[in-house]
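Worked problem 6 (solution included).
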Amino acid sequence: MKKDTNGISAYIHIPFCEHICYYCDFNKVFLEGQPVDEYIQSLLTEIRLTKEQYPSRNTETIYIGGGTPTSLSAEQLAVLLKGVRELLPFDDKNEFTVEANPGDLTQEKLQVMKEYGVNRLSMGVQTFDNQLLKKIGRKHTAEDVYDTMKFLEKEDFLNVSIDLIYALPGQTLEGFRDTLKRAIELDLPHYSLYSLILENKTMFMNWVRQGRLQLPDQEVEALMFEETIIAMEKAGRHQYEVSNFALKGQESQHNLVYWNNDHYYGFGAGASGYLGHTRYRNHGPIQHYLKPLRENQLPTVETEILTLNNQMEEELFLGLRKMSGVSKVRFKDKFGLSLDQVYKETIPELIQKGLLLENESHIQLTEQGLFLGNDVFEAFLIDKE
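Solution. The predicted structure is:
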């Protein structure tokens, strides 16, 4: 990996949950009986070892996700955040996000977060329909969401984003409209909306295979997406990336690290990172993750060195998810080749099909291209078989 002395972002994974949702395939385990304290110390060891090999002058953004970071106790959270702040040089003006679950947050935990510079929360709300929440295995209710929001307002912590999932089993268009309306009424600076993806090894996938689960059809799913874009725009939250909506200036800086194809550390069990020309992934199972760190070794299980073609493809796949698209100048600066040189046939073809727009500075997806993103991304594969 190439040494990178500029700012690198950091993703930190906390794999513990007090409850496992039926649709989730993230690396997570039940909290009870887990070596949580050793895990936190090992995380800090991993950060130290990685920084020795790949130093950076400053950290652009920090994002602590999971699992459920707020399933840690206030004391454990303090140990983690104190260590993170000591090991990762960070400007308090930059974005520092922690994921939280409605109902999990206490005044003590929030106090700890504020003390160590956490300035943004991302909450997994998913839906405001209590029946659906139960159906998908969430342990919070819509009332918990409102209570948490009131509590955050009282604590003057307003930089909050919520995640919603649409096309849930048994979800109707009418039911989704209600969730969307209630989410927008919270008047938050940022919203992320994702359609349900059935992942292998989840309870949902097993139930679908057994015919026990009915999902909305594609037409209804497309309508949910369409209505989201219209409702968000009307509420002044512009769509800056396929699944993300924000007030101007409140876009998630950490999300943009991914879409801009910039570098980031991935710390924790199952976390992925991108440094130099290398993408890497850590061991997922907790004991497999802890074992090398006990010997002061990094817990990397997989590395992939990207060719120039791979890097250019990723720049397109990721960058086209942003509404602003891919910058021609940035592409040329990064790869020493212009977009027109590399994709002289692909770009005009996609423009002709009405999937791509081109102006002087960028290429970007059209409205139709947004709905057919995968077809567009496939067209940009350089080494097509």
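Discussion: Residues 128 and 143 are 9 Å apart (CA to CA).
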